[in-house]
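Methods — Computational structure assignment.
A single polypeptide chain was analysed. Its primary sequence is given first, followed by the predicted tertiary structure written as structure tokens.
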Amino acid sequence: MRRQRNAKIIATLGPASSDMQTIRALFEAGSDVFRFNFSHGTHADHKARYDIVRQIERDLQRPIAVMADLQGPKLRVGQIAGGRAMLAAGSEFTLDQDTAPGNSERVCLPHPELFAAIAVGQSLLLDDGKLRLQVTASDGMKIRTRVVTGGMLSDRKGVNVPDAVLPIPVLTAKDRIDLEFALSLGVEWVALSFVQRPADLHEARALVGDRARLMTKLEKPQAMEHLDEIVRLSDAVMVARGDLGVELPPECVPGAQKRILRACRLHGKPSVVATQMLESMIASPTPTRAEASDVASAVYDGVDAVMLSAESASGAYPVQAVTIMHRIIVEVERDPFYRKLIDAQHEQPLPTRDDAICSALRSVTEIVGAVATVTYTTSGHTSLRAARERPTAPILSITPNLATARMLALVWGVHSTVSPDVSSVVEMVSVATVIAQREGFALPGDQLAITAGMPFGRPGSTNLLRIAEVPSEPATALGAAALDAVLIPM
């Protein structure tokens, strides 16, 4: 199940992808990570899908990452009499705290913390930006507005406030319940929605601890003002273009995406581009040319992963969407210009021992023509730093920890394997050569560039770089032991 590409694919599971046959087909078509969207579905739904993913993992002996995407503090209007009302451009419209059904003149906004944060002159966007209101007065109990862009407003439509930092926690009561459930399942990644400031990550980190890695979804303009600090505090970052594209002018979203990807590369944090990548494939078996170019552009920019949302969760062609995305990535990475762009984006290594070793690993790989860079890692840190360098050869990551192997399924260029820990340099080389052959990376006579830390098994001790040739004779006893190891618990 070796992927012949570096960029990874995240597929969201949902009503269209809930059975064993479909989820396995999604994985075989190219999905590396499965996203569980906690804005939809019950805990029972997610548990059933999680169990299927783990069964597929055991059947195919390939680590698979699972991401729990929390809903976050999504703001919505209340009920409207008759289900919807027309807001005419130029008319007055009031948002208040009265729970009575709304109409064309008013509606309940059941978020009392917003009323003190809203100021005259600011904009409110309703229904993903389709309707725009401008605040004319606010007294803490009512927000009076003028309708700038009118249209039909339905029950429970979303509200975006692009001009203000809102005094709301990043984790709602629902999120806290969902988070604890997701962690009890054993997910590798937790995605935080509507992060506005670095302090939001401290709160989430305290709850998650070391049970999972945190992915920050950047979808608020206010977060862009603290971009470097937020990226530094995150384990990974998602360019969530849904709400970001509502709150920012459309022409600003591409530039914001590139800024985020560059910051992630600088700090060595995995990056994900999401939302509307193959949107037309919700109802069509093929994407538009613009959508194919959008996916390709993200890959040319060196993104770690691209994500499908409704395309795989509720669309009519989930497997085809993954297949097309896989084909686009492969085609881009075959392009000689792709490697030139990746090298042009290369960031200087940080003045640390780990980065010094991984930078040397990249150079050695090119000089000796190594077919793979092998990283021994306990926590995943070494493989993450190696991925930051974007080496020309794939990264074969060897870890004794299944959770680490699963987590790394998200990361650019990394092929994760699970093997018992080694205790000597001789064993390290022997196991690396055997696994490189078993996983389809090397043949006898090929060169491997191997990095590890001594003493072995101690996280954060990357200090060893070794060049090894794959032997032509049968595996040594040490290598054979690694070959026979059970990778994924049955």
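Note: The CA atoms of residues 403 and 484 lie 20 Å apart.
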